[in-house]
Each structure stands twice: as structure tokens, then as C-alpha cells.
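Annex B. Sample input.
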Amino acid sequence: MTLSRRQRFEAAAIAAIGTPLIEALGGTYHWHEQGGDWFARVQAGGRQPILALWHGRILSATLYFRDRGVVAITSRNFDGEWIAQIMRRFGYGQARGSTSRGGPRALAELKREMAAGRPAAFTVDGPRGPARVAQPGAVWLASVTGNPILPFHIEASSFWTVNSWDRHQVPKPGSHLAIAIGEPMDVAGDADAEAIARGVNALQERLGELERRALSMLKAPEAARSI
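Annex B, continued. Sample output.
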């Protein structure tokens, strides 16, 4: 999709206004984490993590993993443009496209970025859902790159819910946020369709377990490390 000059201007304006607002909101959060060292441990082992999350947690995830050079897929439409501009301001790279439109090109770009030594991020139920149903993109990327999937889930103690297909969670100012990061998940390099399907099911189960863990962390924050 080619954006008009007006759309590009409007996207830039949204990003210019939205970035400081997100910065200010994020500065009020109180973070608690489990598994926070897995990202660095994967990189120390000579590989790059493929972050895997539900689409409804993009905002809080953008704040937590900022300025680490993570590359994520962003759509080529108007919404994707202003989102990409905001993410660039938080230190992210973009592979333009989506798993529904321009998918092969975006996945190929992610593969090249990972070969160049950059971590990746994947909303595994994006870009249009159904919500909380994992799609095969992240598992395929792990198979062709040899890099592990690093699943995680974030929950907030107080939040607004956007009226969207993903029920996006926007933590309220001053909220406590719990992030549970799971152990790295490897996928065989010669994975066929059946192996990919098994990997998708395993990833779905892990994300469900991490959600339960994050919720329990909010009930007992002393069990997690505060940052």
C-alpha cells in the first residue's frame, strides 16, 4: 500500500505526539520480572532471541524491550506507518509487511535481519487474530534461522482495555506490571509442516502458562524481581 503525502504527514504527527505520551506513561510503571536474564543469556550463547507475545501486549512490551535493536513486523498501511515511527523512537527496527499481506517478504526480511545478528519480535496472533491463537510465523522463523523463541507475557495491576479484536491492554499510570519470560524454545532446522504445527501448539501452551505466572506475580510480587 502506498501512502499519500497527507497520510505520511499525519502518521509523523501521531508519532511525534504519541512518543512523549508513552514515555511519560511508562515512567510511572513499577516492573516485576521473572526470567529477565534469558534475553542476555541467549545472546551470550551466540544466538538471537525471537520474542513471542500476544498482540494485545504490544504497548507494555515496547517499553520493556526498548533500545535493544529488536526488529518487528509492522504493516504497510496507515496504522502500521505511525506505529513503525513510534517504535523507531524506542530503538526498534521494522520489517514492513504482515503475515496476511506481504507476509513472505516480511518474513524473509526478518530472516536477513537475524542473520545480521539482530533479535526479532513476533506477535504470534497478529495482525488480525483470532486473539490468543498462535500462528506459525515465529516457529517457522526459529526453524530457518536456528534461533530460539523466547516467549513472554505481561500483565498489569490496573489497565484500560481497548475495544479492538486483540483487547489491547493499556496499563494505567502507576500500575505494577509483571513480565514472565519463559525458557528459550528451540525448533528443529528441518521442521516439516507437522513439526511446525507441534511447535505452534507448544508455543500456545507456554504462553498460557506464562500468563498464569504473570498474574500470580501480581498477587505475590515478592516472588519476582523488581526493576
